[in-house]
Design a protein that fits this description.
Elements (H helix, E strand, L loop, with lengths): L4 E4 L5 E6 L6 E6 L2 E7 L9 H12 L8 E5 L5 H9 L4 E6 L2 H10 L8 E5 L2 H5 L10 E6 L14 H8 L2 E13 L4 H13 L2 E7 H4 L5 E8 L7 H8 L4 E5 H8 L38
Parallel strand pairs: 5-6, 5-8, 6-7, 8-9
Antiparallel strand pairs: 1-2, 2-3, 3-4, 9-11, 10-11, 10-12
Helix pairs in contact: 1-2, 5-6
């Protein structure tokens, strides 16, 4: 594909796939003007968006290098992380829950998945689909990635303690949940999500670009949760891997960062804040910390 292609989705949004002008074989998926995913078809292990790289590093820490895993992805986009897992952990079993079947059809037409990828896509609302997943997945999923967005905002119904409790039932012993959170200065939404996830999965760490985690600007915070203790070896390795400047916060430091933010329930949940107009459309290749709200 040498030029951009586009399609009008059933929800009225416009989806565009553009070739990356700086990297042959790479493409960006843009939905309603917001960059959603970046895919390198020639090298699926090459992750571009800053928050996706951080999630990729978390996935790398699970188990032994190259060991197949069972993964559940809430939110699909261009399927960047499922492709990454297929490339780095052959033989993995993966389920993707994606609302827009026409978006996935568009992606598959122009950015086809590898043969025998082991990636199965189920269509519908991510939270509603949890109740319809095979019983064999309960207590059997090693890695869950939550990256659900409607445009540039996270829907309220996938931010509550009730949602995280339902999700945690799928985790295998030692399994991890990685949640992509987009928030602005002050990070009230992100801190509330950390408090909520920690109530369900006591071991939580927050990963982000340093300026974002300090609440200086809009950006992405990756929350990692587990019922088991996160290895202390993980934290310095995750920080060293970047992208830089990087901060990884856990334990007492995370409690201070949460700073008494209230736990979110189905009754109190609200969507994530909207980014300012043009925040993601004005960035250029080479910017430090280039990111996007979601979803891969």
């Amino acid at each position: 594909m040498t030029s951009a292609v586009q399609v009008r989705l059933a929800n009225g949004m416009m989806a565009v796939i553009e070739p990356d002008r700086w990297a042959d074989g790479s493409y960006t998926l843009i939905v309603d003007g917001t960059p959603q995913s970046h895919v390198d078809l020639d090298d699926p292990t090459r992750l571009f968006f800053e928050y996706v790289q951080r999630i990729g590093h978390v996935i790398d820490e699970w188990g032994d290098p190259g060991e197949p895993l069972t993964a559940l992805h809430l939110g699909g986009g261009a399927l960047t992380l499922p492709r990454y897992i297929h490339a780095t952990r052959p033989g993995s079993r993966q389920q993707v829950l994606e609302l827009d079947d026409d978006l996935v059809a568009f992606v598959r037409e122009h950015l086809p998945l590898p043969r025998q990828s082991g990636i199965r896509v189920r269509y519908g609302d991510a939270r509603a689909l949890l109740a319809r997943l095979p019983a064999a997945l309960h207590g059997a999923v090693d890695v869950i990635v939550v990256d659900v967005f409607s445009g540039a905002r996270i829907p309220a119904h996938v931010t509550s303690v009730e949602f995280y409790r339902e999700l945690s039932g799928f985790l295998a012993p030692g399994g991890i949940v990685a949640v992509n959170i987009a928030d602005g200065p002050g990070l009230a939404f992100a801190r509330g999500q950390a408090a909520t996830l920690q109530l369900v999965l006591p071991q939580v760490a927050a990963l982000a670009e340093t300026g974002v985690l300090k609440g200086r600007r809009f950006g992405n915070v990756v929350l990692v949760g587990s019922a088991s203790a996160l290895s202390m070896e993980w934290l310095p390795r995750l920080m060293a891997r970047g992208p830089h400047p990087a901060t990884v916060t856990a334990g007492a430091d995370l409690s201070r960062w949460i700073a008494g933010a209230p736990v979110v329930s189905d009754q109190s949940a609200v969507p994530s804040p909207a980014p300012s107009l043009g925040l993601f459309t004005t960035q250029k290749r080479g910017d430090e910390g280039l990111s996007a709200p979601g979803s891969r």
